[in-house]
Amino acid sequence: MSSKEAKEAIKRMPWPVTLIGAAHEGRYNVMTASWVSQVSFNPLMVMVSIAPERYTYELIQKSGEFVVSILAKEQVQVANFCGSRSGKETDKIEELKLKTQPGKVVKVPLLQDCIANLECKVVATQEAGDHVIFIGEVVAGSVVREDAIPLLMLNWKPGSFVPL
Ligand SMILES: Cc1cc2nc3c(=O)[nH]c(=O)nc-3n(C[C@H](O)[C@H](O)[C@H](O)COP(=O)(O)O)c2cc1C
């Protein structure tokens, strides 16, 4: 069991704020995720850590694919909405009227309103405590907004870390 101080300490680490898209057999969903990182240059790989109770977890587990969409600093409300409702009950894409386009390689749609999309195929899965890490090879990528500033999170609050 981690100490209270350790939990306070880890909240000082800034994280990116992304949307993870996943699709399987006609079902499509996005969820907010901050535990996302590049893990290899060659081949290009990223990881995302997802709790098994998420709807997104089921879709990635079944399809073996996901898309990381990097959010911009003015997308705090999108991050909070997609991070507080489950696709099990809410069609988040429809509610937020998110515009999508087909992926170049994966079957998961790409978001038109974000900084960049990374199309990933799962190459490894690792349990990590109460989460599961999906490691994905980045099989395609596209920059949507050249000059936008990314949304970062500190202390569990998206937008609370402002880059210089
Ligand atoms: C800023 C933010 C970051 C989050 N990061 C993660 C994360 O990295 N992993 C995770 O499993 N849940 C994370 N969550 C929680 C999920 O986004 C949330 O449980 C969501 O409702 C799950 O949606 P789903 O059931 O449609 O997949 C985060 C929430 C917020 C607001």
The CATH level-2 architecture is identified as: Roll
Distance linking N and C termini = 36 Å
- Percent of residues in helical segments? 10-25%
> What Rg, in angstroms, do the CA atoms define?
15 Å
The count of β-strands is 12
Low-pLDDT residue intervals, each spanning 5 or more residues: none
> How many distinct folded domains?
1
The best one-word shape is: globular
The CATH H-level superfamily is: Electron Transport, Fmn-binding Protein, Chain A
The ligands bound in this entry are: flavin mononucleotide
Q: Give me the number of helical elements.
A: 4
- Describe the main β-sheet briefly: 7 strands, antiparallel
- Main CATH class: Mainly Beta
Strand % is: 35-45%
Short characterization:
With 164 residues, this protein is of the alpha+beta class. It has helices at 4-10, 55-63, 76-82, 92-95; strands at residues 15-16, 18-24, 27-33, 36-40, 45-50, 65-70, 100-101, 110-111, 116-128, 131-143, 152-154, 157-161. The protein has a seven-stranded antiparallel sheet with strand order 3-2-6-9-10-5-4.
Commentary on this structure:
This protein has 164 residues and is an alpha+beta fold. It has one domain (4-161): Electron Transport, Fmn-binding Protein, Chain A (Pnp Oxidase, Chain A, Roll), CATH 2.30.110. Helix content is 16%, strand content 43%. It has 4 helices and 12 strands. The protein has a 7-stranded antiparallel β-sheet with strand order 3-2-6-9-10-5-4. The longest helix has 9 residues, at 55-63. The radius of gyration is 15 Å and the shape is globular. The model has no long low-confidence stretch (mean pLDDT 96).
